[in-house]
Structures
1.
Amino acid sequence: MDDVENRRHQMFVRVRDFGTAHAADFAATSLGGQLFVGLGNIVNQLDGHAATQVSGFGTAGEGTSNRAVSRQALRDTMRAINRTAEAIDHDSPGFADNFRMPRADNDQNLLNAARSFATKAVPVSDQFISHELPANFVANLNSDIADFEAAISRQSTGLGTHVSAGESIDETISEGIVIVKKLDAIVRNRYVDERAVLAEWTSARHTERGPRHTSPAVPPTPTPPSP
């Protein structure tokens, strides 16, 4: 949650605690009692959404790191095949045409080229192996492709979870604000003659403001000396 959302979450907690402290004044079947219970549910939901949001962000970050590592591993494997193909090309002109590295720095292009390498290398694998590529080089390439695809998927899933949780937080906060507005009328009516309790309520439902960021003062322009 961002700063504004955190401050509203904290306000909901204070209002919920106010309701707990004054539960004897609001029957469970009354509108006020039901609204305080509803706000408690809002707090619980926000806690859950916030945990999911953090988890999604962590998963996305992990996926981003793994994506970079697996991308480089796939490139290295492909370059070895490309380099070997160019060596074979001296005796078999045109051989390397099927094993060109993609020009664009694009992950989808890299995957497409890698899959092509894997398919086209199978029938000519003996020539690669004769140039000291390992006998399982095609299997290694397919493994690198799978690792890269998994990292991309993990990053995408994490981002999706993070964004979805953020939307749920927004919706839940909106519901909580409506509940607090309804409670404001009920509480003020209930404690109209009890200034101390009303002051407690006002403090509970107050949403703290974020810190102000002031621009640094611009020094005055010096007055040029008189001639």
2.
Amino acid sequence: MGLERWTAYAERHRSVVGLTALLVTFGAVALVLDRPKGAAEMWLALPLFAAGAALFAWVLWPAGRPMAVAEPTLATRLIRFLSLRGRLTKVFPVAGVAVVAGDLAYNFLVSTTPAFLTEDIIVLLLGAALLAYGFVPEGYARERDFVLMFFLALNAILVVPLLAARAYFQDFDTSVDVYSWVALAPETGAVLSLLGVPNVVHSLPGVTAPAITFTPQQIGLQVTLVITTACSGIYSFGIFASAFLSFVLTEYARPSRRMWAFLGLGLLAAYVANILRMVIIVLVGYYTDTAATDLQNMLIAHSYAGWIIFLAWTALFWGLLFRFVPIREPEASVTEGRVMSAGRAVQVRYGVSCEICGGALSPAIHAERCTCGAYLHRACLRSSMKCPSCGRRFQGELSQAVDSA
């Protein structure tokens, strides 16, 4: 039976292919869990898992329906560029399987332990985003592109530099702690020195991470704080930076000076917050710990205060930015603080709000988005049935949207 006949048979019997994929995948999972050491069967798990996942992706792929397309943004342009003008989007499930299989192969063949660490979870989530890309309904195409951009950026920030550093140092097992050495420990030591806290940044024998040594006022003995990858805050910075980058790319349709300033301020705020976190942890130990506390105050600050500092700083940044910086560039000319739109002057609004009433948007309140980019409450549209920004009428589209809600 030729390839075309096999393909036609699979199209007619998708349930049989799905059952085959289920059996193959369970077989691969059983080999991974049992892992008969020294037996040749254990090496069959990886190709079986890849084959099962690829079959599942083919069975579940929405045949006969075009893929949902989001409104033109910088994110959609970047995805279109990466997918060779959209020609490769249909093979995203295969790419997702390849990403998952590559991570499993790295764990079993290169790393000394097959345990799934933080970087493995990040890679596997990217594979899941690629697998699910084609199944997202049309109404959520924008959110789908945000998720894909987020995991691509997260891997670019946290995984790719780590693999490159490990390849450079020819060490594929231990952490190289490049971020702590280059962008955290020296800067933290410099800020502490400016605040009057004597300290030394140095290396320790047998440890790849940098260390900061200082002498608490009430103890009188030197204390050494090792900044490992897990304690460096790189994951917090990576998550915030990736989310912020994805947000900007999915909100702006074209690059502009405002967009670059918006993006640069966001990344800088996350980086500064991370340095501030490390500085406060050391200051707590320097000023408050005694021989009786045995550095417990600094440990508490490390475990809890760091997250509070980072979240409070980023929340303050987002609040100020949304208050004073418009998310979108005005589509028309601005005169004396007002935008000329549809033949009349309307007040410039900051952040995401309804263009009719000026009220905030909420997941609990149904809204529409006009082709010009304006957001409009459905309740407000029922009275005007027209977008105040571009004049587009919503008679047919609104009734259909309300009926399906």
3.
Amino acid sequence: MRLHHLVLAAVALLLFNGCSKKQATRTTEILGYKDMPAEQREIVLTGQRAYEQYCTGCHGVDGDGKGLAADMLITKPRNFTQGLFKFKLTPTGSLPTDEDVLRTITNGVSRTSMPAWSLVPESEKLALVQYLKTFSERWRNEKPAQAILIPDPPPFVGTALSVAKGKRVYADMQCKACHGELGHGDGPSAPDLTDSDGNKIKPFNFTTGLLKGGRSVKDIYRTFTTGLDGTPMPSYQDVIPEEDRWHMISYVLHLMNKTKVSAAEVATAEHQLPPPSTNQ
């Protein structure tokens, strides 16, 4: 535990002392800088100053995720040059909205070294969002898609019957290949999983810890619907009907011990289901 705290302290030190001469001269290398209106340039430069103060220690001067602290981190920092973002409300493969990026900056990412920058002034964070866009050509060539609508959870979420149905969806979608039969993150594919940079990543263990994308039911729905770009976690928006996605959320919540139903009640509910389809 002490070693963990020392590593976090070292990371924090790098976060706040990451400035270099190269950072100060990146202005001439910022994508699209020369074509920006004067007002936009000023916003981007404000964002650059915030990035240099808070972000380079992990994400690197060039936004490639290769900051001085990166080698010490189990979960590697985001590589902004790819234009891929995990936590967003836009469909899989599309750019996030400004609100998506701002939300991650403000809330941080659980179980990683990405802290919540909630105390940073809003104006700085908004400028930082604009500066992050200068690391990838995608922002010049594409526009974010329309954000998906996350409905309120249906009343059946968390019931024994919904958990039983979700368990079947979990099996049908072969979630156990990565997350394991019982959601422990120990599926047969787990040891070989990598992200878009080739870094090894681990499937989430639903029985322990906090979800990186947020702790609410709607956060889980978002992940199942949009997927996590740059990782093997797919989008189920066009694969699983909305009701079944909610049932799978019920099962995941049960694995996380966040439902009020017992294993015996779920087993009883399973017997009420029709036989599984053989057309797999």
